[in-house]
Amino acid sequence: MTSANDPTIVLAGETHAPGAPAPAGGIPLATPDIGPLERAAVVDALDSGFVSSVGPAVGDFEREFAEVVGSRFAVACSSGTAALHVALRVLDVGPGDEVACSDFTFVGSSNPIAYQGARTLLIDSEADTWNMSPELLHAELSRRAAAEEPQPKCVELVHVLGQPAKADEILDVCRQFSIPVIEDAAESLGAGWSTGLLAGRQTGSVGLLGCFSFNGNKIATAGGGGMVVTDDPLLAQRVRHLTTQAKVPDVGYLHDEVGYNYRLTNLAAALGRAQLSRLTDFVEAKRAIAGRYDDAFADLPLVLPPRLPGHDATYWLYSVLLRDAAERGPFLDHLGAHGVGARALWRPLHRQPPFASSALVGGAVADDLFDRGVSLPCSTHLTGVDQARVIDAVRSYFG
Ligand SMILES: *Cc1c(COP(=O)(O)O)cnc(C)c1O
Prior knowledge:
Blueprint: H1 36-48, H2 56-69, E1 73-77, H3 80-90, E2 98-102, H4 111-115, E3 119-123, H5 134-146, E4 154-158, H6 167-176, E5 181-184, E6 192-193, E7 209-213, E8 226-230, H7 233-243, H8 266-276, H9 279-297, E9 311-312, E10 318-321, H10 325-337, E11 343-344, E12 359-361, H11 364-372, E13 373-376, H12 384-397
Parallel strand pairs: 2-3, 2-4, 3-12, 4-5, 5-7
Antiparallel strand pairs: 1-8, 6-9, 7-8, 10-13, 11-13
Bound molecules: pyridoxal-5'-phosphate (PLP).
Pyridoxal-5'-phosphate (PLP) binds at residues 79-81, 105-106, 108-109, 158, 184, 186-187, 213, 215, 226.
């Protein structure tokens, strides 16, 4: 087991705090777009007296959300992490189990696996979507089947940065081995597929359960919050039960198992509903910024975000890859000096002390994304002038 302050975890020469804020007066990486609609919704909720988890906005938010993503049921939660935790719990993931998870993701994906006492089986990304490789997953599950080794209890498929994974292929692999899929769609609300087996479907709605986040940095925010969606009425009921302290309805204070206080507040739901009603505009804005950056950077020595036919990404974060790891620090310094709040991509889970002892399949692609990846400012309300400042700052680095 690697200790929490093991210096080998930190790359040699790495001096940048990836989450550092934009310099004063600079352009931040991504900030929420809060307008009069949101302000009115929150004031209404306050005035209604329903501030906590019993209130009409929660149910409305759930119904509207289910409709938007195309799932039968949606259950609101206090965070995306809570949503993932309760999804794992309803699939009976527990001590001794393993959960296959994307290696290249935010730690909010994997912490809930640890909460359940289960181990992570980390699967590397593929270079064309930056998401879990269906080939590597298939190879590992086949190897285990042949060796008569235990299989993971479920697969947690993350759609990073608003990029839909090859979920049709992952679902097909998992079907072969009868393994359920939980989607971590915390970053991919509004993303989906327009061709192939999943044409017309949205990320988060194609696994057995899908989880979303409404943290302040996500495409739509509730201040904080999450959602679990599913087409299975029994699973939806289980999620609802566990998020409300496992309280048996209509019986005086009977709690039939250990539950959680994971319900979303009415105040947060009111904000979330207002943001959800603007989702189409947010997605359009993200895509417009991505299109403008793509055009402006086409001749530079940068790898631009994945664009796959039939994969309708939202570009929640617009991230590029530099030529090599040594360039990342100077590039971030250069952008910082120009008032551009850029940020490195995530350190893969296999380099995080709590997950460093996990079984790992591959890892080189995730390492490379971390070593060379930088996200650029892409708030949905980023002005054309600020987009031009970002473009100029990036171009001037290359001379
Ligand atoms: C944000 C995020 C989470 C956690 O969501 P919270 O609402 O912050 O708890 C989980 N997974 C991924 C991939 C995320 O980006």
